[in-house]
Design goal:
The protein is built from eight helices and eight strands; from the N terminus they run E-H-E-H-E-H-E-E-H-H-H-E-H-E-H-E. The radius of gyration is 15 Å and the shape is globular.
Length: about 190
């Protein structure tokens, strides 16, 4: 599958490594441009691209950027086909992202993200730490394999996210609709429990 990942930090780079290792074609972008991540992308088995290139010609776009930066991406999705699956891996941390009144008022994080970028999203990979993603993935049927919650509204998009979570070495647990995704946000029982 062709996958574009925007965000080359701990989560984005780890997902790029795991997805490339499982046979997916991965394009990796960050906010500073492809020249700043060429070596990282090569080591991972991905291709360093601009964020504009990351959303072209792919079946899935994974967003692994700080939560407060989502409004900056809105125009990026103008020409992306409607059938491209968008997966949100972010978490809202007011100390880093600044206060966001709607989320502070109870709007689920990924509902807010969807509104900011003008696209439906699936929430996945947000309920584990980067070190867990990097070190704790296991082959299918392995004893003690960790489950990761996946929330979304579109069955086909959610099924794609489930497939990719499984490819990264974790069991995917359907955690309901996007409005239910609050259950896997920071401070909730499903967050970082492994």
């Amino acid at each position: 599958m062709k996958i574009g990942i925007i965000g080359a930090g701990n989560i984005g780079a780890t997902l790029a490594r795991r997805l490339a290792a499982s046979g997916h074609e991965v394009k990796l972008a960050n906010s500073k441009g492809p020249d700043t991540i060429c070596d990282l992308a090569r080591d991972i088995g991905a291709t360093a691209v601009s964020k504009e290139e990351a959303v072209q010609g792919v079946a899935v776009i994974v967003l692994a950027i700080p939560f407060g930066r989502y409004p900056d991406l809105a125009s990026l999705f103008n020409d992306v086909p409607a059938d491209v699956v968008v997966i949100d891996t972010s978490n809202y941390y007011p100390f880093r992202d600044g206060a966001i009144a709607e989320v502070d008022g109870g709007k689920p994080e990924s509902v807010w993200v969807s509104e900011q970028i003008g696209r439906p999203v699936v929430k996945a990979w947000n309920a584990v730490l980067a070190v867990t993603l990097a070190e704790r993935g296991q082959p299918n049927e392995a004893s003690g394999r960790i489950a990761i919650p996946v929330a979304g509204d579109a069955p086909k998009a959610k099924a794609t996210a489930v497939q990719l979570v499984e490819a990264t070495g974790f069991d995917a647990l359907d955690s309901g609709s996007l409005s239910d995704s609050w259950r896997q946000q920071p401070g909730t029982p499903a967050y970082c429990t492994e």
